[in-house]
Amino acid sequence: MPQRNRISQKARIAFLALVIAQAAHSIEEYVFRLYDVFAPARFVSALISTDLRAGFIAFNLAFVAFGFWCYAVPVQEGLSVAIPFLWFWIVVELLNGIGHPVISILERSYIPGTITAPFLFIIAVYLSIQIARRPVS
Asked: How far, in Å, CA of 101 to CA of 27, rounded?
């Protein structure tokens, strides 16, 4: 039988909010064509398809789907892998939440994803607090 972790309701809701915020973030990046203006997004998109738009869509759909799967299976079931997955998402979204505004400031222009980035940062910080407070089993 798999080992179970107790994940609080607040942490589960925060994680779901983080995945939803990532979906909104991906939409913002797509609408404003991050894959055309940011070299790392171009690189990742090109790994998937020669059509950068299609590669960007595929990567982001897979990433958001992975987030919903993490929520629906490991997090909801309290599987032992849930905590490492939550920390993975926290780190990714903290980097997203910091990176977009910093790059926008350095470039002195809007970088697609900058509008939703603060939401990712705030939710990731809140989630990290909830995870750190979890009872030790």
From this structure: 17
